[in-house]
Amino acid sequence: MGSISTLTIGPEHPALAGHFPGTPIVPGVVLLDETLRAVEQDAAAAARRWRIGTAKFLSPVRPGEELRLEHEPLADGSLRFTVSRDGQLVAHGVLIPAQVEVSPAPERSDGADAADGARASASQWAGEPERGSAAVARILTFLALRLGRRFGLLLLWLTAAYFYLFAPTARRHSREYLRRALARAPTRADFFRHVYAFGATLLDRLYLVHGRLDLFAVTIEGEELLHAAAARGDGTLLLGAHLGNFGMMSTIGGRRQGLRVAMAMYEHNASQIAAMFRDADPASAPEIIPLGHLDAMLRIRDALDAGAFVGMLADRTIGEAPAQVVSFLGAPALFPSGPMRAAAALRRRVMFMTGLYRGGNRYHIVFHELADFSQPAPGAREAAVREAISRYVTLLEKYCRSDPYNWFNFYDFWHGAPA
User: Fold this and answer.
1) Is there a single domain that holds both residue 71 and residue 183?
2) Are 107 and 116 within 8 A, CB to CB?
3) pLDDT of the chain along its 419 residues, tens only?
4) Burial of 23 (0-12, 13-18, 19+ CB in 10 A)
5) Domain assignment of residue 82, yes or no
């Protein structure tokens, strides 16, 4: 016998900010997450946790609409669910047991962040063209692949000199960051090294997506975590930052034949970089999952279900998206909570990953475990998400101090965070 309940996702839900401004639409992952919450509150289904087996969206949902949720058990132990609005089917699918028995007191969260409602106003990067990326890409894409990496590095000296002279805003923000990371007043040479490192990592993305791993001397810290995750085959979310060369994650596939690697990214904010991936050899370039689309989280889930590593950058806020205030390099800063919330909703393991540029052709790849949401503790998801974000920021700060010229956020990163 089935169960019927009502479901409403209000406009104040923290995941709605920044999604389709002006005509907000409930993201698919939010609808699925709220469906799971509602099912786990029902007495007939609350004896265990559930996860999404299959799901299909038939109609967009807007904030505040009253939805009818129906679910019924199937013979194999799964649950069939439907979500409808005024008799019109909105979504349907199957929930399967998450293999974790819990007490019949499911968690309930109002979606509030540790930031107590703080929103990400440090998001001017999203509305500004990435001047550095565009200029460097136009020059290097044409010449570097034809003339080789050594010639490309020579060009970087000219490019870095250009930005040294004609990018006062980037220079000012770089100086503020370096003052914190170096714990001293940065010099002009420090800014030059900062811009040069940025250009070098951008240049090297070209070679990476064209399969030229042989050009680099790579060391790996935490490789045993990588092997263990691949052996489990249940998919792992890799959270990185604009730190070093996140494109080095493509070496994961090169080191283990048949391993699927995908990158979730906002293509419109780095169109030149995305073009590098689109134009590369498909056998060398990772799959790109564009964020900001209704089906993005389902594509991420499908990739993880196939045992893939899915990479995502988690140090930049967007618009009014939910954010958590964390102390970073001596001052409060806003970090997006969406990536970690997505991992929790998808019930996946999460690892920190970065590819630190250490001069010449040397890179040091780092893996650290961040969180395991595959076996959620009853009533503790919000706390687990906050703790995981704090661990992420602690690791980010560690490597900003050890490799200070590797962090490439040339804007006022600390702007907008409550004091």
Assistant:
1) no
2) no
3) 568 888 888 776 655 555 555 567 777 777 777 787 788 776 555 556 677 777 777 778 888 888 988 888 887 778 888 899 988 888 888 888 764 333 333 333 333 444 444 443 344 434 444 444 555 555 556 666 677 788 777 777 887 888 778 888 889 999 999 999 999 999 999 999 999 999 899 888 888 877 788 889 999 999 899 889 888 888 999 999 999 998 887 666 666 666 788 888 775 544 555 555 555 555 556 678 877 666 777 888 888 988 889 999 999 887 667 789 999 999 999 999 888 988 888 889 999 999 999 999 999 999 999 999 987 666 688 889 999 999 999 999 999 999 999 999 998 999 877 76
4) exposed
5) yes
At 416 the three-state DSSP class reads coil
In sequence order, what E strands does 210-358 have? 217-221, 236-240, 261-265, 287-290, 309-313, 323-328, 331-336, 349-357
Answer yes or no: do 135 and 269 share one domain.
Answer: yes
42 shares its domain with 187: no
Residues 304 and 160 in one domain: yes
Per the domain annotation, does 88 fall within a domain? yes
Do both 280 and 341 map to the same domain? yes
CATH number at residue 9: 3.10.129.10
Claim to verify: residue 295 and residue 359 sit in the same structural domain: yes
Q: How many domains does the chain have?
A: 2
State the Cα–Cα distance between residues 240 and 354, nearest whole angstrom: 6
- CB of 141 closer than 8 Å to CB of 207: no
| Residue 107 falls inside a structural domain | no
SS3 170: helix
Tokens 């099912």 label which residue?
39
- What range defines the domain where residue 44 resides? 3-101
Boundary residue ending a domain (101, 133, 150): 101
The DSSP symbol for 119 reads B
